[in-house]
Hints:
With about 130 residues, the chain is mainly alpha-helical. Helices cover about 60% and strands about 0% of the residues. Helix 2 packs across helix 4 and helix 6 (about 85-90) packs antiparallel against helix 7. The chain is elongated. The relative contact order is 0.11.
Amino acid sequence: MDEDEPRRLTLGELIRRQRELAELPMRQLAAMVGISNPYLSQIERNLREPSDRVLHAIADHLHLSADALVAESSRSHGEGLSAVTKAIREDPDLTNSQRNAVEEMYEAFREVTIARRKRPSRSHDPNGDLGD
């Protein structure tokens, strides 16, 4: 990344910045959304991912599109991602929960395959697994 190029913001940073631009205190936005102040703080600090309901409520109260927030933050983290992960994150036909679930499954499958490759090869597997 070029030093002169601005760093992209995470979802939590985008939410915090938009809340600040709307001049809404964190407690007020949390109350409007129906969540606790600590939960909103964790979202803004990227310690927790908001549920779809919470994300849409935050976006509505900030007069934004939840999809636009997610798309912008996804672009922020696009460098170094596999084509599959990028496709999952950009698929407009998936909800945020579905995207997260598919991405988790994909990463789990990859980790298993990578771990298998690192194991010394055996000439005979007692389970009959050929390693697909």
